[in-house]
Specification:
Two copies of one chain form a homodimer. With about 325 residues, chain A is of the alpha/beta class. The first copy, chain A, has helices at about 10-15, 20-25, 35-45, 55-60, 75-90, 105-115, 135-140, 165-180, 195-210, 225-240, 250-265, 300-315, and strands spanning about 65-70, 95-100, 120-125, 145-150, 160-165, 185-190, 220, 245-250, 275, 295, 325, 330. In chain A, about 45% of the residues lie in helices and about 15% in strands. In chain A, helix 5 runs parallel beside helix 12 (about 300-315), helix 6 runs parallel beside helix 7 (about 135-140) and helix 8 packs parallel to helix 9. The longest helix of chain A is centred in the N-terminal third of the chain and has 17 residues, at about 75-90. The radius of gyration of chain A is 26 Å and the shape is elongated. Chain A binds a DNA duplex (16 and 16 nucleotides) through helix 2 and helix 4.
Chain lengths: ~325, ~325
DNA sequence: ATGAAAGCGCTAACAT
DNA sequence: ATGTTAGCGCTTTCAT
């Protein structure tokens, strides 16, 4: 059942050549007689030869595999990023190992170790919600393996980043709410130690301050990034008997969770409560009323991250200064505000 | 900048041992003195040793990497499947290389070649829309590399499959429409050479036949799997002046495309036209009215596919009979019908 | 233009 | 219990 793999030696012995000659021919070494080369290529084809990339990488001490680690693959945002990464890597001749931490720091640590052991040429990662330190990423830097962080970036590490300007995006979005006449604006915030949610919260506060609106801590509900968090967040607002006239949610999933509950309570969007999300998920334009939100470009973020990584990989010897790429966002005004 | 990697030889020379002793210790070989082993493990830790898995796999002629190839990563369905695969592979100690064909046969062929060259231990694949032959997959079988096909399966190859029963799922769904009183039921069908869409079409026809309803070819519109296809499909129905009283769409994306246009035309769902999808995307429950659809369990499909693959990989020597696993679907009745 | 020798990091089989 | 030898498939350097 298990067929032995065809190697350059097999090709060589078929043609009474030495395997090094075959190796050279396959890599277009100028030494080789075109006639010989032709015969070698034909024989390779006919024997169904596939080069052993592991052996190549092993010998050359360079791999063409890149690691990608995200919290959850099956979230729109990350699936988009991964797709963007994949396309760029494909064009550049790299393959990609994908891991998901499931928001667990322990798993993320194991994943990154495995990636180092697998000799990845570089790593693109969005850290998990429970990741507080970056020690496991410093391994990469110590070993000179290029690193690109995106979306959620940890403190305490200097590396290439691909992020959106969460602060200003949130600021402008909330500013827009205020301009539209809303005053009591609640915020369904994300985890406070995650960069993106922390910055969106800061943007929210800054916009209120700028407009001389008092920040009411009771209107800021901390939760996670998921739909349930939106539901429970809005429940808390109800329970406190403290309904705002607008809600800014940390992302569209949370907004969608709140959305359902708002309607269930017989409240009209946006007349009774306006709703603003972040992320522009596919569902957001389908909601009725459709959701006003901040559009990120996750696919593009992935492309940019992959390009940055490849750049580093292919100029590994040169001194490389980490830089941060900020992907533009866009406020998409729909009918929920 | 580029730090040389730490090898078992480094550990060995530190301790004045031979590198094979270190190798054995790291793999818990019973030969090794517990005391020695302890020192070796400590030294490995302190030197920040990471085993070179490529060298291991190379030497052992077995890899712990599996290939996964889907048409498009950033489609709900495939992202879910990939996530399911990843979790199972993680638990079993495998890593996964992910490719996307972007619905191109050429790219799929290149991807699969690359996976063979990368010495994957197995392959899980859903073929692209433009893939008509399975020759590129037979390479895996010739080389004894386990193979699992899911969702879209090509003809002409005998391998493990993980699919849903598209025929019966569609049959029951359409049967339900008929029972609800709809008679003129259109079908926005997918590509006719893809197994899933072909089978859903067959199920649709069978249900009509069973109920003595004539099949009107003009009510069957062929298109792709995307939202645009739903929009253009419904346009064709309008153009033909041939509005049905219900539409069965090949999947939820197509249904969503039709959905928007139906409402745009001032028609009421389900009173003027009922709408039935397939797949139960996240958006489907958010539509208003919410979409009746057939729930697949893509995450579970991924888990099953990964388990089947691992089973094959780990019993490679034994004769393995390809089997087909059919994942149960469920008709989710909501308000669009 | 072709061949020989060496070695990448690791493990298995066989000494000692 | 530890060490020696050899070799996986490939590429590089140095003969011929």
């Amino acid at each position: 059942m298990i067929k032995k793999q065809v190697t350059i030696k097999d090709i060589a012995s078929r043609l009474n050549l030495h395997h090094t000659t075959v190796s050279k021919a396959l890599r277009n070494h100028p030494d080789i007689n075109p006639e010989t080369k032709k015969r070698i290529l034909e024989t390779a084809e006919s024997l169904d030869y596939h080069p052993n990339i592991m052996a190549q990488s092993f010998k050359n001490k360079k791999s063409n595999t890149v690691g990608v680690c995200v919290p959850i693959i099956n979230l729109d945002f990350f699936a988009e990023v991964i797709s963007g990464i994949q396309n760029v890597l494909y064009d550049a001749g790299y393959t990609m190992i994908v891991c998901q931490s499931n928001e667990s720091y322990e798993r993320e640590e194991i994943d990154t170790r495995a990636l180092v052991s697998n000799q990845v040429a570089g790593l693109i990662i969005a850290i998990s919600q429970t990741t507080q330190y970056a020690e496991h990423l410093k391994v990469f830097q110590r070993r000179g393996i290029p690193l690109v962080l995106f979306d959620r970036v940890p403190a305490g590490i200097e590396a290439c980043n691909v992020i959106v300007d969460d602060f200003h995006s949130a600021f402008h979005a909330v500013q827009y709410l205020i301009k539209s006449g809303y005053r009591r604006i609640a915020h369904l915030a994300g985890p406070s130690h995650i960069s993106v949610s922390a910055n969106r919260l800061k943007g929210y506060k800054a916009a209120l301050k700028k407009n001389n609106i008092d920040i009411e801590e009771s209107l800021i509900i901390h939760g996670g990034f998921r739909e349930e968090d939106g539901t429970s967040g809005f429940e808390q607002l109800i329970a406190a008997g403290n309904l705002p006239d607008a809600i800014f949610a940390v992302n569209d999933s949370v907004a969608a969770g709140a959305f359902l509950l708002i309607k269930k309570n017989g409240l009209k969007i946006p007349d009774d409560i306006a709703l603003l999300g972040f992320g522009d998920l596919k569902i957001s334009s389908y909601l009725e009323p459709s959701l006003t939100t901040v559009r990120q470009s996750p696919h593009r973020m992935g492309e940019i991250a992959a390009k940055m990584l490849i750049e580093q990989i292919e100029h590994k010897d040169e001194k490389f200064t980490p830089r941060t790429e900020i992907v533009k966002t866009e406020l998409i005004i729909r009918h929920s505000t």
